Model the fold of this input.
Amino acid sequence: KIHGPLGPFVDNQVFLRVFRFRMAEKVGVDSDLPHDDYRGLMELTTALNARFSDRRKVQQIAQGVLRSLFPPWLPPQFAILFARPFPAFSSRMNAWATWWAGTWLMGECEINDCEVDGGGVGKDQGLLVKRCRFLEESGCASVCVNSCKIPTQKFFAEDMGLPLTMTPDYETGECQFSFGLSPSAQEEFEAKNTPCLGRCPSIGSMRTWHDGGPKLEGNGARCSQMGDD
Done:
């Protein structure tokens, strides 16, 4: 029932289906659930994190999914024509576009002001996700960081030419998108070292993998099995 300003038909029958199709292509498997069922997308996310032991590979595939949603010429042209010459305008444009096209994925959002590079405040360059649906459904900080935060930031910086910092709050479920703000080394260190959530279905078994080490196998590795929740 979660949908953005374009309405449930566009969100569920277009955005969700296309995103699900592109993700299934990159992961190499698909869920048996209907293509307009959000849980099927989460099963694919679980499968992605289960299939690859290298978290950098997970990040690369997730970034590849985002790239596949656009014509290959569009992101580099956006960087040349908009992001570099008009960074503030481009940041506002992407904040609004993310609100219009991403509410179904993340949950209720609102445009807000945010910190930007140089220490100033960007008017309407931020997007606050009030309670992230993706984080809530996965229940896993590792999945949030490696399947969403890092690849999304890299997509905007490397493909669109626009800095982005995403700041999830694992206590409240909020996530602040700050377009025009480059991630700091300290902020990225804190994100990668977030303690495993108490509700995480892996019961901490993905902790070392989240930090760059090997995955732990055993009874705790539930969120590395497709379909378990």
Remarks:
- The two ends are 20 Å apart (CA to CA).
